[in-house]
## 1
Amino acid sequence: MSVPSVPEPVVSMGGLLPAVARAAQIVGHDDDVRILPEEVAVLGRVPQARVWEFAAGRTCARRAMRALGLPASPILIGAHREPVWPRGIVGSITHCPGYCAAAVALEQDLAAVGIDAEPHEGLPAGVLETITSPAERAALEDLPSRPVCWDRVLFSAKESIYKARFTLTRTWLDFTDVFVTVHSSGGSFHGRLLERVADETVPAGFDGCFVVGAGLVLTAVTVAGARPLQSGVGDR
């Protein structure tokens, strides 16, 4: 079985993205995590763990923006709790215990970016049945057995697809609005929107890739072309 992986403790979100995008990540602790005053004002009163999570995500985003040669601007919060990117930028932020990452690109290069990070472990009991169709579950059963937790890969793939599509439509999908096929060799997946949520102004299908390693599942989706609507992608 050819499953994309990286030697522990190294994982790379950047390796899942096209050359026109940039990513930054934090694995474990980072003493240089910062939150800007403008961001503090919009975050409000939240638990300290959420402050750290928020600050780490914004720190990664600014590092990725600097890698594109852009100024490290504040990244505020939109009406849907999504990061509000500076004009001309699309991006995505993700975090899970012990890991945080952000990916950005210029609007002229990509229409949308969606990334997600998950712990590499099976989904809690009952979750898979909630987020998938019987046909999706049957397809997962045809994949090679462990060491890969394919249910978690599929969950993460859907998250990345939802974030990318949100950039284009400013609306969220339900987990069962997209049918995802995971390919065990080559580390790729494809998501097909169901007819009930199809929108002729945006793609009906999304292609992405994944990597498994260091106790993590990382997924990424990008959409080529200029973005038609205002910037913003969810930070779920």
## 2
Amino acid sequence: VRALAVELAPLRVNAVSPGWVDTPIWEFVAGDRKGETLAAMAERLPAGRVGKPEDIADAIRFLNGNGFTTGETLHVEGGHRLV
């Protein structure tokens, strides 16, 4: 992302790096254990919950709306990198 931001300037380049997000894919990944799997991760996260699609959408809206942000990877993961 940083290299692309420099290479493509003045075009802005950013990325969103989501953590655990409760989406329908978990029904295929974890099956009947979806709720149990996500609850176990939520207990470990500093935010105390897994993400929602709206959390990721908010991050994208921020990056799109802030014309002075470029070359950044925004981690939207409830503090997962801290634990």
